[in-house]
Amino acid sequence: MEQTSTHKHHEYSVKVIMTVLLAGAFVAILNQTLLATALPHIMADLKIDATKAQWLTTVFMLVNGIMIPVTAFLIGKFSTRGLFLTAMGLFAIGTGVAAISPTFSLLLVGRVLQAAGAGIMLPLMQTILLLMFPIEKRGSAMGMVGLVIAFAPAIGPTLSGWIVDSYSWRYLFYLIFPIAIIDIIFAYFALKNVTERKNPTLDVLSIILSTLGFGGLLFGFSNAGSNGWGSLSVLAPLIVGIVTLVLFIVRQFKLKEPILEFRVFKNPIFTLTTIIAMIVFTAMIGGATILPLYIQGMLHYSALRSGLILLPGAILMGIMSPITGRIFDKVGARGLSLVGTALLTIGTLPFVILDDHTSITLITIMYAVRMLGMAMVMMPLTTAGLNQLPRELITHGTAMNNTMRQVAGAIGTAVLITVMSSASKNAETADQMMAQIHGVNMAFLVTAVLAFVALLMSIFVKGSRKSALSK
Q1: Which of 94, 167, 173, 185 is the most buried (most CB within 10 A)?
Q2: According to CATH, what is the number of the domain 263-466?
Q3: CA dist 226 to 290, 313, 383, Å?
Q4: Which CATH fold topology does 1-199 show?
Q5: Mean pLDDT for the stretch of residues 285-290
Q6: How much is the pLDDT for 160?
Q7: Rounded to an integer, what distance in angstroms lies between the CA atom of residue 348 and that of residue 350?
Q8: Over residues 29-53, mean pLDDT
């Protein structure tokens, strides 16, 4: 009887911890897309131009990308509870600063603080869940992460569109702030220490090289969409990023306690699943960026309507992520990956032939098919790859997986935007709107090719759910 009571108490603790972690990750990820439709209102209110305003989204992605590689070190250095409370505290302070900021500079500071907290949050959450759950239940746990990753960024533009149409843009931050504070209070009482503290030594040079490397790449590629590949604002950070990243990787292999453990790529299944996840994430972020441009700019629908068109797909992905997690626990990743990448490819093809009269119903349905495919691939593949790693490398595996996804998302979006701009300029038509639609079609053609490559790669994913520990 006492054993049953203890088991129930353990189950309750796990559920409470999961709720706290998922709530924190939800507001952090929601925050990434929340400003997209609010930028025109912020520009008018703070009297800034579009180039300056874009920094509010670019700086969030940059700081996020810089923080993620450092999380493996932070998870080893600090307690689970302390690190989560710090990350959530930074995020809450940043949200509060952004909400009341009278100037653009202070708003930017708020975004940097938010991003610093958010960059720690997702890898920390994934690490905790993988360590809390046995191998046979990890798929279900990571499916819940998939729900957050899918649902939060997708409702951002819809929610943002409604709020800025009805209230001030500051309400975007007023909405998130109390949720962050409540989550901190719950975490203070409910969160337990799950990770092992190894007290690794901090290699300052690695941190500098990592920041310049990942930061340079993300900054360069995020500038490419607006400034063109030949501009100094793209080439300079890319060169700095590539050179310092090579130096960073070489240094990690020489260190006894590397900041980011590149030896995880010695496992072929982890490497393969990470590459497929990068391609699929690019297809997701690219589609979510380009489609609203088409719906708002070429079909002339409002920001709110644009968000509502994409919402059914987001809801479907959110609902399916926990279900595909359970399926993964039973059958493994290979079947899910094959069907998922096939659906992603099929769902992308209609977007290659968009015109100025394309049915909104067709767009909504095919976008939902794409999102269903992604739900079958993203978290199951991530879990399958991480399951191959021994316990001591899981923190490095999650940090690496998240870093690669973030970089792929930034690079992929920049490439797709550039393809769209170039194709529009070179279109053989005098009609400007049709030229823009041609650009959108070409960007989705590239996405369809990437999805097909992911489908071919999925053939080589092993269906086993066993980890390196169980061999």
Answers
A1: 94
A2: 1.20.1250.20
A3: 14, 28, 35
A4: Growth Hormone; Chain: A; (1.20.1250)
A5: 79
A6: 79
A7: 6
A8: 77
